[in-house]
Amino acid sequence: MLKLFTPTFYAQNIFEITIDFYKKNNIKVVLLDLDNTLDSYKAKTPSERTINYIKLLKENNIRPIITSNNSGKRVSEYSNALNVEYLSSVFKPFKHRLLKKLNELNINKDDCLLIGDQLLTDIRCGNACKIKTILTEKIVKEDQPTTHINRIFDKPLRARLKKCGKLNNWKENQ
Ligand SMILES: [Mg+2]
């Protein structure tokens, strides 16, 4: 059971992950969760640090794709402000829509890394797709109401993964 939710790596937040890490792990495409991974769900426009991080990825030929369960308008406006590709209404943890999109875009899933703040959606989806994952902490306190129920399960599950030594810090793999 624990295996379904075990991330490949763990990071405090996305912004600490270095380009060297992506290069060393042969990551060419980064599938980025939006809400509480890049910015608060309330943020209509990207923060300065997100703008800079996306720029850094692109400069290093790492392709960022925002991969969100949130709906079209929210995701498209935010992503367009960053001039970055996006997939909305992905229905994580279900794998079908994401795998279909990657196939359409001719992306090899072995080149991908999915980064997100939720075990039940992001990490479960990555594992179902057999895509490498990084679990992060949420970057702001507030969640959108639909996420509250997931957090009830996320918190003890996260604690258990930590206790069992399953949270493999990215810093030890760079
Ligand atoms: Mg999220």
Short synopsis of the structure:
The protein is an alpha/beta fold. It has helices at residues 19-24, 48-59, 72-82, 96-104, 119-129, 148-163; strands at 9-11, 29-32, 63-67, 85-87, 112-116, 132-136. It contains six helices and six strands, in the order E-H-E-H-E-H-E-H-E-H-E-H.
Overview of this structure, please?
The protein has 174 residues and is α/β, with parallel strands linked by helices. It has a single domain, classed as HAD superfamily/HAD-like (Rossmann fold), CATH 3.40.50. The protein has helices at 19-24, 48-59, 72-82, 96-104, 119-129, 148-163, and strands spanning 9-11, 29-32, 63-67, 85-87, 112-116, 132-136. The chain is globular. Residues 33, 35-37, 116-118 line the site of magnesium ion. Magnesium ion is lined by residues 33, 35-37, 116-118.
User: How big is the Rg?
Assistant: 15 Å
How is the main sheet built? 6 strands, parallel
Number of domains: 1
The distinct bound ligands, ions and cofactors come out as:
magnesium ion
User: How far do the termini sit from each other?
Assistant: 28 Å
- Separate helix tally: 6
- Would you identify the CATH architecture? 3-Layer(aba) Sandwich
User: Percent of residues in helical segments?
Assistant: 25-40%
Instruction: Kindly state the number of beta strands.
Output: 6
